[in-house]
Amino acid sequence: MLDDRDLEIVRALQEDARATFADVGQRVGLSASSVHQRVRKLERAGVIRAYRAIVDPEAVGLYVTALVSVMPLDPRQPDDLPERVVEFHEIEDCYSVAGDENYILKVRTPTTGDLEDLLRRLREKAGVQTRTTVVLSIPFEERPMRPPSSGPGPGRAAGS
């Protein structure tokens, strides 16, 4: 269970993963060594899974973003889409969802022609039908998560 200080550390690192332990400590009211210990604990527990740079897709030539809904052609086929498409580097995110489709994929390609090629390869390799929505603009994404505090709050009884 994470306490409020752990959550503050997580928030601080989501906003700036390059912040020093001293910087984070100043923000959350702990010493740099205490922050270091807590961060290592959060990493071992899998709360903090990775550190990475968030890159502007257009700056690296990925101008087309699309959301691809995926449904199996045969409902009896194995539910192994993630394993079938893991090598498709254009797929940035894969969500298993409830509803008519089984998965929604967030993909990025340089051009609409490349998107069309990806959809063809996806249908062939995975034996699925797709429905694609091309993204026109992205007002925001990659927002830091805001976990609820561990203290009492709406719907949370004191001491639970």
Low-confidence region ranges: 154-160
Question: Considering the protein shown, what is the CATH homologous superfamily of the largest domain?
Answer: Lrp/AsnC effector binding domain/regulation of amino acid metabolism (RAM) domain
Please provide the count of β strands.
4
* Biggest β-sheet: strands ordered side by side in the sheet: 2-3-1-4
Quaternary organisation of the protein chains: single chain
Which CATH C-level class of the largest domain is it? Answer: Alpha Beta
> How helix-rich are the residues, as a percent range?
25-40%
CATH topology category name of the largest domain: Alpha-Beta Plaits
Number of helices: 5
CATH architecture of the largest domain: 2-Layer Sandwich
Radius of gyration: 20 Å
Strand content: 15-25%
N-to-C span: 11 Å
Total separate domains:
2
Can you describe what's shown?
A hairpin with a 6-residue loop joins β2 and β3 (103-109). α1 crosses α2 and α2 packs across α3. The protein has 160 residues and is of the alpha+beta class. It has helices spanning 4-15, 21-28, 32-44, 81-85, 112-126; strands spanning 64-72, 91-96, 103-109, 128-134. It has two domains: 4-44, Arc Repressor Mutant, subunit A (Orthogonal Bundle), CATH 1.10.10.10; 57-134, Alpha-Beta Plaits. 33% of the residues lie in helices and 18% in strands. Strands 2-3-1-4 form a four-stranded antiparallel β-sheet.
